[in-house]
Amino acid sequence: MANPITFLKPSQRDGIRLIFREAIDKDGFAIILNVLPSGEVEQILEEIRESAPRRTRAGVRHALGLGPISKVAQQPRIMDLAQAVLGAAAFPFRATLFDKSPRSNWLVVWHQDTALPLRERRETVGWGPWSVKDGVQYAHAPAAALSQVLALRIHLDDSTTLNGPLRVLPGTHTLGVLGDDGIHELSTTIIGVECLVPAGGVLAMRPLVIHSSSKSHSVAERRVLHIEYAASSLVAAPLDLAVT
Ligand SMILES: O=C(O)CCC(=O)C(=O)O
After folding, report:
1. Which residues in the chain land under pLDDT 70?
2. Which atom of ligand 1 is least distant from the CA of 166?
3. Within-domain flag for 161
């Protein structure tokens, strides 16, 4: 289990931000506890329920247009985490609500997140192959663009060893964009870390850190808001990132 970072007094903010940045640089991920109080988590869940989003099996994709989710993405403590790593111009560009439960149970094999949503399809060296998901254009991106992205996974339920938590291979974000064989090889040589995060905590991760998750073996839901932030509107230049 990774050493979690806890938010302490505002006077300790600069020290905590430094520890956080160092963990992201070294391991490609970090866990921060107690970012949102439990009352706020309950309220977010209630607001999402009321907005009745259209869902797929894994949850809700392209969710940044939903009021309650956009509000979480801009919440000052969440923005502060994104800015600690990406700088003051950081902004959210994509949100996914991953909802894993006995009713909708799923797994993902070891992979890196390499596709970025783009405003339009323009063949560009280093980008591709292209695809369309839910009407949004996607291209696999070069490592230089992905290294300017950070995902903040806001836990709306406790993630436990039983309900299909995310597992990561520490340090693999530094290895660039890997093929299936390379990913498989690393998954047999590096010891995976289970990211057990209580509700209200955040798992921050680089998209290139190799990750996976298994099916849930619990009745407890595991809802996670996965929000991706870019360091600036130019990270996909000469292409334009879509906000979705
Ligand atoms: O939430 C999970 O279990 C998997 C998420 C994932 O695979 C991803 O963000 O690419």
Report:
1. 1-2, 7-9
2. 3
3. yes
